[in-house]
Amino acid sequence: MIQRLLSAACCLCAALLLLVSTASAQSSRAAQIDSPAPADRLSGMVTIAGSATDPAFVAYELSFSLDPDETETWFPIGERMTTSVRDDNLGIWDTTLVSDGNYQLRLQVFLEDGTVLEAIVDRLQVQNDTTPIPSIVVGTQPAPTSSTPTPPASVADPVPTGTPLPLEFQEEQAPPAPGSRVGRALGLGALAGGAALILTGLFLAARRDIRKRQEQRKMRNLLRRSEEQMKE
After folding, report:
1. What is the mean pLDDT of residues 43-62?
2. Does the pLDDT of residue 125 top 90, yes or no?
3. 3-state secondary structure of 20
């Protein structure tokens, strides 16, 4: 009897241990997005919260796509992360970089054996453009406007090109002063006198040079004659 009770207790303990290990393994293995939730309306910088854990965890990656996505094209959000996360921020999605519309988020957790855990949140509405769209009611008429035309603003008549201005707008030119003519004449006379002196000096110098050369020729001729006479 005692042996039967002991064997039953051992079986019960083994079952409890198996349940505890299975529960702990399941609790340590998760790929879950807690926020945002399906059908949420998003704008600006959106924080993605959840869990990405597993005993054989390698990395996790966030991505988004259109909803529905017929081509199954996913665009990464940030870089692939190599640190596990439990009930915390997984990343930030800048929704201002995409056009307004319906999207879905995906979390992928990569394990050592090549297994990929996945969680998807769909029906997310991105709306960053807050400009109100005017409502148009069928059958309504626009408010009547005044039939009296507004007179145009008065504009000064431009002065036509080539038309001489009135005498009061013309600048009066003062007649040249008498002293200015005298000064101009004196200046011209001084220039002429200076030029005459320069020419005279050049002429005298050239004349002196010519005479000097003539005298040198005479001296050479005299020396040549005297040498010839001495040889005879």
Report:
1. 95
2. yes
3. helix
